[in-house]
Amino acid sequence: MTTMCALQVRALSEDLGGLALVDLPMPVPSAGEALVRIEAAALGFPDLLMTKGRYQARPPLPFVPGMEGAGVVVEAGEGCQFKPGDEVIVGGLTGGVAQYGCFASGAMMPKPASLDMGQAASLRAAYLTAWVALVRRGMAQPGETLLVHGAAGGVGLAAVDLGKALGLRVIAAASSDEKRAAIQQLYAPDHVIDSAPGFRDRVLAITEGRGADLVYDPVGGDVFDESTRCIAFDGRLLVIGFAGGRIPQIGVNIALIKGFSVVGVRAGEYGRRFPERGAENLAQVQRLASDGRIRPHVHARYALADWKQAFAGMESRSVIGRSVILPHG
């Protein structure tokens, strides 16, 4: 085989018009890399933003989208720690939505046997973000109350799942009855609430006026603003992203008077700045998955030819968890 099929972003566009399926040369692994047959590629909101040129990282054109996937090693370069036949999870800025890809050893981890390929592809980015947010940056303690915004999305749902595994009291906030019912069925958080304006009163009622110790916010905008009104003294407001569109601002007098911290979370950058801790983070996520204590949810699985449907689901905000593309399906 000399070529493979991949999805390629050839031009940035608001309507996915710059994307197309193409045949590309079969990649060849360099030293320290492995050639992986990609069995599943999980899509996240950053993948959609990158096709529009609206993500913080802008890969040079053309590029193959897909920040995470899972598959089987078919060839290993010199010095690679993995060998042919190993089932692995791969991660990076790009390269996932293709039949094959070359990945450095450091961008790969063994696939937990407890997860199928679609679940494994959905593990790394979302759960690593949740782990760094809650454990490393948020210093969560068992029994504390965690409010998760955007709880039906990939990173939000991971925070709900991980929060329960860590012994937190989890309040999951989502925008529709369908999403709230799915969250309850999947992970049984302590409370599931409507994320519409006015959630402050619901959170304060649940916490008997104290507020949430941790607020996990991938939404930003008005959600961030209202969260400052239902966070506990000594609380940690974890800034994950701005899916709502508006980047909020805060007067530092509010944080001073109310005694809470605003904490930025960049899981990938955290691992790059602190490599030993980054390796520990991945190992902890893998261990929890292997032990069956966390389990990613796959919303839908699409053949490579149906990639537009997968991206459209993210655009409409109808995905619960992760959508997965099967490059050989």
Automatic annotation (TrEMBL):
<dbReference type="Pfam" id="PF08240">
    <property type="entry name" value="ADH_N"/>
</dbReference>
<dbReference type="InterPro" id="IPR036291">
    <property type="entry name" value="NAD(P)-bd_dom_sf"/>
</dbReference>
<feature type="domain" description="Enoyl reductase (ER)">
    <location>
        <begin position="14"/>
        <end position="325"/>
    </location>
</feature>
<dbReference type="InterPro" id="IPR020843">
    <property type="entry name" value="ER"/>
</dbReference>
<dbReference type="Pfam" id="PF00107">
    <property type="entry name" value="ADH_zinc_N"/>
</dbReference>
<dbReference type="GO" id="GO:0016491">
    <property type="term" value="F:oxidoreductase activity"/>
</dbReference>
<dbReference type="InterPro" id="IPR013149">
    <property type="entry name" value="ADH-like_C"/>
</dbReference>
<dbReference type="InterPro" id="IPR051397">
    <property type="entry name" value="Zn-ADH-like_protein"/>
</dbReference>
<protein>
    <submittedName>
        <fullName>Alcohol dehydrogenase superfamily, zinc-containing</fullName>
    </submittedName>
</protein>
<dbReference type="InterPro" id="IPR013154">
    <property type="entry name" value="ADH-like_N"/>
</dbReference>
<dbReference type="InterPro" id="IPR011032">
    <property type="entry name" value="GroES-like_sf"/>
</dbReference>
